[in-house]
Amino acid sequence: MSPEHQSILVADDDPDIRDLVVFKLQQAGYEVRAVEDGTAALSALEDGIPDVVVLDVMMPGLSGLDVLRQIRATDRLSGVKVVLLTARARDTDVDDGYNTGADDYVTKPFSPRELLHRVNTLLGRGR
Amino acid sequence: MAAQTVVSAPLLSWVLWVLVWAAILLIATVLGSRAGRLWREHRDAQLLGELRPAMLEVASGEDDDASALHRLTAVPAHRVPVVDRAVSAMLSKVRGEPARALARVLEAHGRAQWAIRGLSSHSAVHRAHAAWTLGLMRARETAPRLVPLLQDRSADVVVAAARALALLGDGSAARAVLRAVAPRRRPRGLPSWVAVESLCAFDDSAAPVIEAATLHPNSAVRHVAATVIGARPLLGAAPVVRERLAEETDPRTLAAFVEALGRVGGPRDLPVLSRFARHRDETVALAAVESLERLGLASSVAALAPLVADPRPRLAERAAVALTELGPAGRDRLRDVVAAEGSAALPANYALQLTAMRSAGHGVD
User: Fold this and answer.
1) pTM summary value
2) Any transmembrane segments, and where (chain B) (predicted)?
């Protein structure tokens, strides 16, 4: 499937990071939607199922891990890949992320190029 | 007889007028400053709005021909402060080549010179801001100028300098960071977690200094060194950690060494960790249980199993959870404990249920 037909949902309360991730992924040809918190992310998932969700962990209201739990508990979202993008870099935080069902874990400060590679890999686009 | 105070009507009226005018002036000042701030934010947003695509292009690493970088560096003087604020904010969020490109924007605007001058400012806020700016710019050659700030009279400046040095990654500052944890002239040192964060970010030249700090007379410094050895991890420091375990008297630091051994040690450390898992200080015992789990050896099961019956509930639960992480052998041992229905059945059952919840759908038995 070409990247134009693959969609990504980005949820981050930091407008700089949100805009940056959207810009990078759009440049790579993905359809990208962005929201600013966990509740809005769940609403966006009602509107359409993306191929990948890039989730910040620490957001006001519902955290990224809360959203991830909801995604993993919902059958129709079983095919959605989730990348956690977070400043929480301790081993235990990474373990929590993967144990909750994340497919990948990227820590901030981050390399936009590396994030794109990770998303490409999850979607089978390789390098 | 009580003295009677007489206030004339004109004086009272004058005082009231002064109070009313003072109140009006105060309200006008507050509203004026708020309006001014909103206007500045609006103006900054407008100024930045036109340049934001260029900043995103640079920050995302998509500026192959450096045209976006040129647009940011060539802004008129009145836009420079707005652009620099936005670039500094973005710099703290990205790493790699995009961070270096953003730093070039600040360099072109003379921020490095501004920051170097600011390090000796009378204002602690300016000194901290200047130090942080040099860190954000990854101006590694300025590390020697930041080191003296680790002994600054302001705690905020000390923290800013340590975090800036972490961004520079220059291991030659390790000794100064450790010294800041236990300063001679100030009552409070650099917070341990900031020191650990910095020392973990330094290059390998910091390793010998960190190892040597495990012998420091101050337990806070030894604690930081032990934590860093485990967190980096410094695999070559395993012999040092083994030696210190026999000598350490401070329980909190001992726990840090025990935890570090779980990260830098190996199978030969199983007996000593098993002994520490029965330590009378619960923090030390918990650290040993975690280390036994981290080593991930099948033989750890025998060391952890008796601890599920420990009278300290937290330790018993932690040992049971560690057993679940050691594969089928650990979980089978817990099932035996549950079947025996003794006092250890409660933590064993808790750990098995926790595993079942976590592994739902992941195919773990």
Assistant:
1) 0.79
2) 12-33
Mean pLDDT calculated for residue range B34-47 = 85
Residue from the list A72, A109, A112 with its beta carbon closest to the beta carbon of B61:
A112
Asked whether residue B363 carries a pLDDT value surpassing 80, the answer given is: no
Mean pLDDT, range B115-143, rounded to an integer: 96
Q: Are B63 and B69 within 8 A, CB to CB?
A: yes
Give me the CATH topology for the region A3-122: Rossmann fold (3.40.50)
SS3 B324: helix
Residue B79: is it exposed, middle or buried by C-beta count within 10 angstroms (0-12/13-18/19+)?
middle
The reply to whether A93 touches chain B by the CB within 8 Å rule is no
**Cβ <8 Å between A109 and B52:** no
What Å distances lie between residue A22 and A103, B51, B57, B260, CA to CA?
19, 17, 11, 40
Cβ-Cβ contacts under 8 Å, B101 against chain A: none
Q: Do A111 and B62 touch (CB under 8 A)?
A: no
Question: How far A27 CA lies from chain B's nearest CA (Å)?
Answer: 8
Look at chain B and report how many structural domains it folds into. Answer: 1
Q: Do B95 and A109 touch (CB under 8 A)?
A: yes
Amino acid at B248: E
Alpha-carbon torsion (B115, B118, B119, B125), positive or negative: negative
ipTM of the complex: 0.89
Look at residue B354 and tell me if it is in a domain. Answer: yes
For residues A59 and A6, is the Cβ–Cβ distance under 8 A?
Answer: no
Lowest mean pLDDT among A117-126, B121-130, B256-265: A117-126
Q: What are phi and psi of B226, to 5 degrees?
A: -65, -40
